[in-house]
Structures are given as structure tokens and as C-alpha cells.
Design goal:
single chain, 286 residues, alpha/beta, Ubiquitin-like (UB roll), Rossmann fold, 3 domains, 10-stranded mixed β-sheet, 4-stranded mixed β-sheet, 7 helices
Length: 286
């Protein structure tokens, strides 16, 4: 939890002087009437907006802002901004989006407009903003979770689990994430990551996943091996490769392509050698 607290101009009492008893603003005699007046003003404004027009609307608007100004003079002003959930979003960017200054009337703050500005920030997926009377604005944000790096037209972008781009700046620290390649790869990235994660041993060898023909994936492994997964049941093919490698150590051989698109066999292409087929059920070594 991060707390942005504005500095106070109040001076501390000198040594030996008794401290003044501070009465919370909401317990002061005029606090309740002011809150009631502001509430009535907003309700009246909403009702008149529906049934009146022209001069009446202008009068209601003037009355509303007059009440807000009075509430500010009585102490209902912004002194603190309490923020929860911020990890990647910069504090300066967040405060710029909120657009609040110390001492501004708290009832003048447009919560919906501020929420829209905050949710427009790159890392923010959802935001909730509330007034906590008498003087605090509470902001809770849910940030997007990085899923993979998307390579497209020689540019890298950080994407989330929905396939949306989070940012293209300062993403070197996310180099450990899977790289997905292809124009529409982000849309399908979460699905292939779930498939690859079913075999942790193989996952460690994955360098990138390439979306091919807008219908299936090729998986690039360390050592320059290209694994061609089928359009249908890629999870089953991935599991089949793990079994082949466990029995025949196929990934340690001089291979460049492992084609799993046919459900009953594994087609192996080695360097400078013709393709060899391994029947899926017999498990014969190459």
C-alpha cells in the first residue's frame, strides 16, 4: 500500500506549552449540516436536470458550486491521497492522471473522470476511486499482469494475458518471458503458454512460439530445433514429444525439425539428412 500524504503547514507547539485538543472535523457541530446540504444540493441538481431546462439548469449549477465552495471553506478539502495496488505504475504518472491539488474542495473532484484517466495509464487494468470524508481520496488500482513478449516487425512489446500491449518501453527486465511471434500471436498467447506449461522439462528449452498461417504454432527450442504443432490438440502433441524425448532422447540428437502434425507419427528432420519417421505406437529409435 502506498500513501501519498501532502505536507501540513501546521506548526508544532513550543516546549512546555499544552497541546490543543484536536476535534475531528466530522464531529464538529457544523459538519453534519454541511454534509446534508451538499447531499441535498446534488440530489436537487439531479432532479432538476431531468425536469427543468434553461435558466433553471444554470441556477442549479451555480447553487451546487456555491455549496461546494462553502464546504471547502468549512474544511472539506483534499489533504491525503491513499493509493493501494500500485506496483509498476509510476507515482508521478498516477498523480498527473488524478489531477488533484492540496486544499481543493473534495466535493468538486470528479470521480468518474479521474477513474477514466487513471485507467488510460499503460499498466492499469481497473481503478476504483472514492471519497473518504472529510479530506481523503482513496484510489485502488488493479494492474495488468505481464504474460509474454510479442515480436512483430522487429519490435518487441510487453503483452498481458488478454493479448493487449502494456508497453514497449523499458522491457529488458522481462526478457525471461516467452517470446511470441506473428501478427495475431498475442490473441492466442495465453493458450499456447498453458499448453507448454504442462511439460515443465520441455518448457525450459523453449525460446519462442511462432503463430503460423493464423491457425497453429511452431515452437522454437534451444539448439535450433523447430517443433511443428498441429492445429488440433496441440497439448496432446506436446505431451507426445515429451514422451519421445524421455524414451529416445530425441532433442539431444542432430535434428532441426520435429513435425508432430500427424497424430500417429513423429517426423524428424536432421541436418543434411532426409526426413525420418518414428511411428507413434512403436516408439522405434531413429
Amino acid at each position: 500500500m502506498k500513501l501519498f500524504r501532502f505536507k501540513s503547514n501546521q506548526t508544532k507547539p513550543k516546549k512546555g506549552q499544552p497541546r490543543k485538543r484536536v476535534v475531528p472535523i466530522w464531529r464538529r457541530p457544523w459538519a453534519a449540516p454541511v454534509a446534508i446540504a451538499v447531499t441535498i444540493s446534488f440530489l436537487a441538481g439531479s432532479s432538476w436536470w431531468v425536469f427543468q431546462s434553461g435558466q433553471a439548469e444554470r441556477w442549479v449549477s451555480q447553487a451546487k458550486w456555491h455549496v461546494i465552495a462553502v464546504s471547502g471553506r468549512l474544511g472539506f478539502t483534499v489533504q491525503d491521497i491513499l493509493v493501494e495496488g500500485r506496483r509498476e505504475t509510476k507515482q508521478t504518472d498516477l498523480l498527473k492522471a488524478i489531477r488533484l491539488a492540496r486544499g481543493a474542495p473534495i466535493f468538486a473532484f470528479d470521480l468518474d473522470a479521474a477513474r477514466e484517466r487513471v485507467e488510460a495509464l499503460p499498466w492499469v487494468r481497473h481503478a476504483t476511486i472514492q471519497r473518504q470524508l472529510p479530506d481523503t481520496i482513496y484510489l485502488r488500482i488493479t494492474e495488468r499482469r505481464p504474460l509474454a513478449l510479442w515480436q512483430h516487425k522487429r519490435r518487441f512489446s510487453l503483452i498481458d494475458e488478454t493479448g493487449s500491449v502494456i508497453t514497449r518501453k523499458n522491457i529488458a527486465r522481462f526478457s525471461g518471458l516467452l517470446v511470441v511471434v506473428g501478427k495475431k500471436a498475442p490473441k492466442h498467447a495465453s493458450g499456447i503458454i498453458r499448453v507448454l506449461s504442462t511439460e515443465p522439462g520441455l518448457l525450459k528449452k523453449v525460446k519462442a512460439a511462432v503463430w503460423v498461417g493464423d491457425r497453429r504454432w511452431n515452437i522454437r527450442l534451444t539448439g535450433g530445433i523447430d517443433v511443428r504443432l498441429p492445429e488440433d490438440n496441440p497439448a496432446g502433441a506436446w505431451q507426445r514429444l515429451a514422451e519421445y524425448d524421455h524414451k529416445h532422447n530425441v532433442l539431444s540428437r542432430n535434428v532441426t525439425v520435429l513435425d508432430l502434425r500427424q497424430p500417429d507419427r513423429l517426423i524428424v528432420r536432421t541436418r543434411a539428412q532426409p526426413d525420418k519417421q518414428i511411428p507413434a505406437r512403436k516408439g522405434r529409435e531413429t
